[in-house]
Write a structure and sequence with these properties.
- By secondary structure, the protein is an alpha/beta fold.
- It has one domain: Rossmann fold, CATH 3.40.50.
- It contains eight helices and six strands.
- Strands 1, 2, 3, 4, 5 and 6 form a six-stranded mixed sheet that branches.
Length: 214
């Protein structure tokens, strides 16, 4: 098992704790068997105006790795804006039959962001990504799969008691103002959602075939 997948597994175990995770009902997804996915820019309920397109930059890779063709998100975004849909809210209102007619996707991934960004509380900070994914069939409108996206990374205390915590808090705020860690946390949230053992997205038709070891 690769290190990134191992870390994702640890995150899944940490988030679920001892709670039994019920297996997802994949009947609709198996019946639809989508080959291509269109990702609509997310609806943003957070206070960070950069969240939709920052998240959008993180989602194509895991979908492709799961074995689906993903329409280029920047091309689709430009196409929709050129056709009179300048905001993600308007893009999310496109009728499915129009998506089928003009783009030809098998399914649409709708994303809602509820919380996004770095939060500073007293002498600590944490980076949060929280939202929801919904995969919908373009042909039938049926929900094929859904999952929360959620990940949180906290800064450590830095050691040294109160003085160490104060220094670490200052350094964290300075570094965060230069390097936004939220996209990295969003990638973690995506991996947790897509690779969850019982509720993750099933492999698509282009998923790599594992060769049995002798």
């Amino acid at each position: 098992m690769s290190l990134p997948r191992f870390l994702v597994l640890i995150c899944i175990l940490t988030l679920t704790g001892c709670t039994a995770v019920q297996p997802y009902d994949y009947t609709a997804l198996n019946n639809a068997a989508p080959r291509s996915i269109l990702v609509i820019p997310p609806i943003n309920n957070s206070i960070d105006v950069t969240a939709p397109y920052s998240y959008l930059s993180t989602v194509s890779q895991p979908l492709a790795e799961k074995g689906y063709y993903v329409f280029p998100v920047s091309v689709i975004d430009a196409f929709l804006k050129e056709n009179g849909l300048p905001t993600p809210m308007e893009m999310n209102s496109i009728p499915l039959d129009k998506i089928k007619e003009h783009i030809g996707a098998d399914a649409v991934l709708y994303v809602t962001i509820e919380d996004w960004g770095q939060k500073f509380v007293l002498l600590s900070s944490k980076t949060i990504v929280k939202g929801n994914l919904r995969l919908v069939s373009v042909t039938t409108g049926n929900l094929l799969w859904e999952s929360p996206i959620m990940a949180e990374v906290a800064s450590d205390s830095g050691g040294g008691g109160l003085a160490g915590a104060l220094v670490n808090a200052i350094l964290t705020q300075v570094i965060s103002s230069i390097n936004d860690r939220t996209p990295a946390v969003a990638r973690m949230a995506n991996n947790i959602a897509f690779y969850s053992p019982k509720r993750g997205l099933l492999p698509g038709p282009y998923a790599p075939v594992e060769v049995p070891k002798n």
